[in-house]
């Protein structure tokens, strides 16, 4: 790299803005290659009155990126070029009066905007993405979240090509213009930061519904989609209405405008965006019907629609002071969407799924070269900080607060937060202060969760004294060093806790110093090491700790075969029932990996426990499916000092085979028993049955009986829904032979005109464990179905290969690494944000053997030596190499 390395921005350098924007009027003349943007900003000096002598007024800084400046006027007078200074990052104006009207005209080229930040075109529709710093690619503006103002937006465009013209807030006027053009004007009465601004213009179909809020406001709900997709909006619409009701009931939060719009677009850098009253969605995250979407897609749509809607209060009405506070809105809103989904579906199953995803995405991040705190202290490119840590660990931090304050206390804290901060841009400290002030709970030590990175390790040991009928529990914590942070302070860790008797019943927990003996407690670990002594216990207890995964830590605890059986079979906390089984299987698998993969026969104790769960009709099928799913290869890798992808794969397949052979009859019975002739319903119950049925099918194909594969072939061809079809194909993609190719080919032919299903097809090829996968993936880059300009396609093929196929990505010759490096360099020129998101698998190099380490570092060096690297890719690649 010849250009100077991009500079980092630091949290402690925060300064409040010098100027307020009292109002903003924007007018767009939309043309694909030359859109004109006129902005009128009423500006006021926001410093102390003593600074008001004219000479002392600081210059006004306006961010700008890739804009053609046409004119600047102050109070009606055009400025000449000596009165402002422009560089590649913006404009600095001399200010002579504490209040003035600034008018700026710029020209932009949406068609050339392949970064998908700012104003761009997706399948002929104009749309915007402004978070985090896209607004500066539309017009010059102080593009930071603590500058909030009211917007009036006028849109003018060709009426035939763009009959729908949308922006934030309420439609106030519209009309026709000469030359086949038309216009609309929008006003958003709520002050907002620029990142929540949005515009959409296109020829879109609209599905309409309505919602009446608790206080009687009638809200029009609209989902705009490409023509032909109207039939795929029902689930998203229903999710929206249920979210609106839920937020009223759980948090007393009502919608605040008469209109709520969702627009689906096919080219989008992430899932969706919460622009005020005009949410823009990746079509994948809102469109669904049984023929094209799986149960997992339905669940994700429900969660994402809710998430974006919930941002209206947590993010929009109260926003972030600066981007270091991103988790203020994201962690809190993820927590809210998790709670919503838990209420809509099975809370136990939802919790297990969330923990699985935390462990798959966040724990490795927290233990790798890009580890950062929930509130980072510095960044080069903020788009690189929309991470699992900020989102998912951030949500865990909020969940722990709810655990410490109780649900009622937490609600009081939320009420106080809105009472104090509605309409403001605030910090994570302001949030914690509201929680603490509303309840009197001291959160000072707890706030280390915001500033210390790394997953804490908690070790649990216990000793039962039969003569004294007492049990002594010792907890100790260590917080690992992470880049730039060492010697950390002990955290405040809330651990939900019970002691179970041999029947799985919770025993009274009487501490020596207390009279009360509840049957469950939250143990608050605050010191590096703490001991708790419980009295009056008639049996040696089974320790059920970190129930419901109350704290995001790595727990280390030894069980005897007897206590393990109690926890696995009878713990009333279903999370720990699941967790104990997973720990048991993990221990066995890691032993087998040590032995090169094959290891010994899977013990009867595990098989018996799995049989019991499989056949236990009292338990939710979705839970049973999760309990019978072995820990994934990536999770196992994360438990090892030096990862051996081949041995992990062999060990896991061997155990699957053992289980399949031992339980074949029961699995076949389950496979048949979970079939249904009823029409597809995306309910949690029906989805749970399909999950268990497909789990059984997976094991059956692993049992070594060739005829079991016929079940998968038939299911892939004859199912009436995408869930079953995909489940069968995911098995078939790993099996060499003509059926595989025939089934995948038939699938592509059937769905070649459905972009979202074509993504699934690409992902199936990318996740195959067969040896020729990399070659097939390379071939698919040239397939008519693939393009580097669409982020969904990139993630489906390249992303799934690199992050979801450890066996083939890490093949010993390093060809997987070099393939990824080349694609990242190529994509960086088109779309840096999406390119940067592909780097993480290479950053894990230190966990591999010497030969792979060298090859992975070499691939990272290839990226770093490319010319004109974006700050996005530069930041993550350089950090990954340290
Ligand atoms: N707030 C957006 C994410 C924007 C990402 C910008 N790189 C979606 C969400 O979290 O709801
Ligand atoms: Zn969000």
UniProtKB/TrEMBL annotation:
The keyword Metal-binding applies. Residues 235-446 form the Peptidase M1 membrane alanine aminopeptidase domain. Its cofactor is Zn(2+). InterPro entries: Aminopeptidase_N-like_N, Aminopeptidase_N-like_N_sf, PepN_Ig-like_sf, Peptidase_M1, Peptidase_M1_dom, Peptidase_M1_pepN, Peptidase_M1_pepN_C, Peptidase_M1_pepN_C_sf. One of its GO terms (molecular function) is metallopeptidase activity. Transmembrane segments: none annotated. GO terms for biological process: proteolysis. Residues 563-881 form the Peptidase M1 alanyl aminopeptidase C-terminal domain. It comes from the Bacteria. It holds the Pfam family DUF3458_C. It catalyses: Release of an N-terminal amino acid, Xaa-|-Yaa- from a peptide, amide or arylamide. Xaa is preferably Ala, but may be most amino acids including Pro (slow action). When a terminal hydrophobic residue is followed by a prolyl residue, the two may be released as an intact Xaa-Pro dipeptide. Residues 454-556 form the Peptidase M1 alanyl aminopeptidase Ig-like fold domain. Its EC number is 3.4.11.2. Keywords: Aminopeptidase, Hydrolase, Metal-binding, Metalloprotease, Protease, Zinc. The keyword Metal-binding applies. Residues 60-196 form the Aminopeptidase N-like N-terminal domain. Aminopeptidase N is involved in the degradation of intracellular peptides generated by protein breakdown during normal growth as well as in response to nutrient starvation. Belongs to the peptidase M1 family. This is Aminopeptidase N.
């Amino acid at each position: 790299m010849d250009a100077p390395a991009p500079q980092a921005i630091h949290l402690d350098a925060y300064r409040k803005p010098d100027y307020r924007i009292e109002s903003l009027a924007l007018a767009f003349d939309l043309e694909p290659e030359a859109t004109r943007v006129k902005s009128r900003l009423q500006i006021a000096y926001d410093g102390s009155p003593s600074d008001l002598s004219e000479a002392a007024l600081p210059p006004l800084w306006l961010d700008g990126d890739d804009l053609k400046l046409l004119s600047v006027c102050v109070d009606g007078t055009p400025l000449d070029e000596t009165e402002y200074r422009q560089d590649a990052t913006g404009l600095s104006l001399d200010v002579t009066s504490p209040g003035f009207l600034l008018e700026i005209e710029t020209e932009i080229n949406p068609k050339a905007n392949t970064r998908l930040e700012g104003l761009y075109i997706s399948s002929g529709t104009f749309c915007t993405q402004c978070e985090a710093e896209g607004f500066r690619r539309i017009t010059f503006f102080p593009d930071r979240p603590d500058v909030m103002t009211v917007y009036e937006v006028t849109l003018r465009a060709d009426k035939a090509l763009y009959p729908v013209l949308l922006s934030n807030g309420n439609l106030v006027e519209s009309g026709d213009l000469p030359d086949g053009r038309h216009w609309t004007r929008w006003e958003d009465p709520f002050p907002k930061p620029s990142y929540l601004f949005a515009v959409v213009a296109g020829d879109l179909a609209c599905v309409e519904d309505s919602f009446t809020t608790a206080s009687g406001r009638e809200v029009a709900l609209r989902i705009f989609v490409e023509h032909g997709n109207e039939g795929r909006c029902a689930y998203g619409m229903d999710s929206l209405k249920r979210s609106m009701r839920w937020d009223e009931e759980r948090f007393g939060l009502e919608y605040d405008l008469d209109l709520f719009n969702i627009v689906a677009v096919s080219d989008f850098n992430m899932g969706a965006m919460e622009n005020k009253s005009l949410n823009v969605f990746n079509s994948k995250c809102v469109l669904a019907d049984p023929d094209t979407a799986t149960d997992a897609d339905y669940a994700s749509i429900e969660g994402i629609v809710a998430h974006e809607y919930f941002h209206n209060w947590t993010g929009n009405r109260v926003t972030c002071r600066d981007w270091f506070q991103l988790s203020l809105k994201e962690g809190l809103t993820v927590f809210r969407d998790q709670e919503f989904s838990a209420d809509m579906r099975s809370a136990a199953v939802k919790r297990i799924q969330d923990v699985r995803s935390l462990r798959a995405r966040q724990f490795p991040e927290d233990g790798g070269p890009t580890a950062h705190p929930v509130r980072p202290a510095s960044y080069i490119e903020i788009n690189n900080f929309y991470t699992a840590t900020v989102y998912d660990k951030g949500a865990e931090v909020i969940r722990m607060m709810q655990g410490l304050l109780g649900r009622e206390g937490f609600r009081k804290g939320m009420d106080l937060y809105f009472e104090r901060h509605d309409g403001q841009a605030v910090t994570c400290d302001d949030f914690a202060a509201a929680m603490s002030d509303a309840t009197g709970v001291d959160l000072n030590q707890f706030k280390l969760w915001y500033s210390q990175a790394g997953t804490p390790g908690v070790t649990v040991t216990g000793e039962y004294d039969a003569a004294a009928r007492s049990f002594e529990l010792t907890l100790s914590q260590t917080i690992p060093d992470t880049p730039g942070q060492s010697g950390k302070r002990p955290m405040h860790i809330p651990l939900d806790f019970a002691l179970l008797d041999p029947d799985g019943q919770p025993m009274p927990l009487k501490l020596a110093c207390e009279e009360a003996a509840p049957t469950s407690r939250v143990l608050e670990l605050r010191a590096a090491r703490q001991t708790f002594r419980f009295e009056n216990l008639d049996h040696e207890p089974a320790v059920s700790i970190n129930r419901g995964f109350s704290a995001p830590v790595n727990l280390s605890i030894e069980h005897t075969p007897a206590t393990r059986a109690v926890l696995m079979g009878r713990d009333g906390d279903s999370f720990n029932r699941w967790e104990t089984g997973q720990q048991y299987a993990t221990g066995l698998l890691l032993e087998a990996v040590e032995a090169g993969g094959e290891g010994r026969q899977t013990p009867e104790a595990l098989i018996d426990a799995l049989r019991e769960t499989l056949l236990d009709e009292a338990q939710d099928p979705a839970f049973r499916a999760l309990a019978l799913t072995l820990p994934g290869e990536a999770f196992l890798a994360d438990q090892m000092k030096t990862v051996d992808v081949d041995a992990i794969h062999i060990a896991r397949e061997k155990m699957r085979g053992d289980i399949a052979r031992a339980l074949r009859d029961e699995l076949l019975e389950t496979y048949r028993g979970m079939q249904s002739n009823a029409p597809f319903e995306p309910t949690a119950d029906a989805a749970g049955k399909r999950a268990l049925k497909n789990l059984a099918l997976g094991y059956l194909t692993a049992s070594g009986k060739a005829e079991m594969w016929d079940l998968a072939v038939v299911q892939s061809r004859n199912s009436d829904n995408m869930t079953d079809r995909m489940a069968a194909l995911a098995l078939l993609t790993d099996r060499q032979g003509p059926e595989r190719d025939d089934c995948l080919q038939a699938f592509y032919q059937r769905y070649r005109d459905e972009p979202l299903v074509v993504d699934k097809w690409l992902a199936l090829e990318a996740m195959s464990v067969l040896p020729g996968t990399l070659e097939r993936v390379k071939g698919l880059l040239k397939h008519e179905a693939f393009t580097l300009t669409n982020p969904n396609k990139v993630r489906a093929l390249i992303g799934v290969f690199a992050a979801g196929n450890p066996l083939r990505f890490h093949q010993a010759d390093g060809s997987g690494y070099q393939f990824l490096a080349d694609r990242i360099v190529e994509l960086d020129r088109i779309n840096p944000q999406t390119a940067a998101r592909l780097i993480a698998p290479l950053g894990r190099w230190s966990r591999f053997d010497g030969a792979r380490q060298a090859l992975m570092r070499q691939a990272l060096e290839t990226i770093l030596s490319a010319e004109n690297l974006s700050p996005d890719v530069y930041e993550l690649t350089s950090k990954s190499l340290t």
